[in-house]
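Thread title: Can someone regenerate the structure for this chain?

I was given the following input by a collaborator and told the matching structure tokens would be attached. They weren't. Posting the sequence so someone can regenerate them.
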Amino acid sequence: MQTIPIFFSVDEHYVPYLAVALNSIKDNASKRYLYHIHILNDNISSESKTRLRALESANFSLEFNSLTEKLRCLDGLRKHRFKAFSSLSIYFRLFIPMLFPQYDKGIYLDADIVVPGDISELWHEPLGNNLIGAVADYSIQHIAPFMRYIDDYVGVDHRKYINSGVLLMNLGRLREVDIAGKFMSWMVKYSLGTVAPDQDYLNALCWNSILYLDPCWDAMPGGAVTSFDGPKIIHFNLAAKPWLNDSVPYEEVFWKYSETSGFHDEIRSRRYSFLHDPEAVNKYRSGVDGLVKMAAELTGSATSFRSIISSRKEFRLCC
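Best answer:
Regenerated them for you:
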């Protein structure tokens, strides 16, 4: 049987939502394949690992990859002061090609998803010579400051700016073009501010070498579009998270897989505590406003992805 490698990158807090995502994949994936799930992490507890392993089956296995040792040579990243995010885990996906040379193709998924479709169908999408396959991020294409930020700061067409929460990765090609090395060069030399760190870098680096997937593979109900025709992956990005908000489109799909995830009571308890903490609710729901403000501020910067690429075209992985 063919093995399909799937990668997640999470911390301890996100383990319950990862369990829901895994449960949905396992329930709907074709039984003709083996699914090897790599959980990239830096601090998941032994107890959480044991609870997640309860989801394993004959063709569905989990492997926990602690990257502390693997990324020791890149420890400068941990000391770097990121403007938008303090967790190194958001960058883990950029190192997958380097850290897993046994694979030439793989799927990366954020943990705030459910997968009512057959994930093996995504695996079989033909990448050709493209570096990645992804869905254009229409969830932000109705927000003017974001659109200007993407066009003028990131330096790509906002209509083709991809969401990095679902990636079909051509790992062989990404190793050939040394995505990890190029990313490190950017970080060390320029240390640019970003609204969506990994996502901005992936768009800037991989521009002109992206297979644009059908939106059913990254249906984002948090944007201007809330209804989709047969979504195969539902991505509860930005503030559209059913475990934190009411009336989120497709929340019933999330709760369906939560009930048999092994973490349902914990997720419900967290939701209750959150919704009864006005300060936490206000802070969370104002988060998008903060990102919009940041986008507007960065757009006026003298140094940007766009200005660097215009003078240093070699920073593109494919020109």
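The chain has one domain: 3-315.
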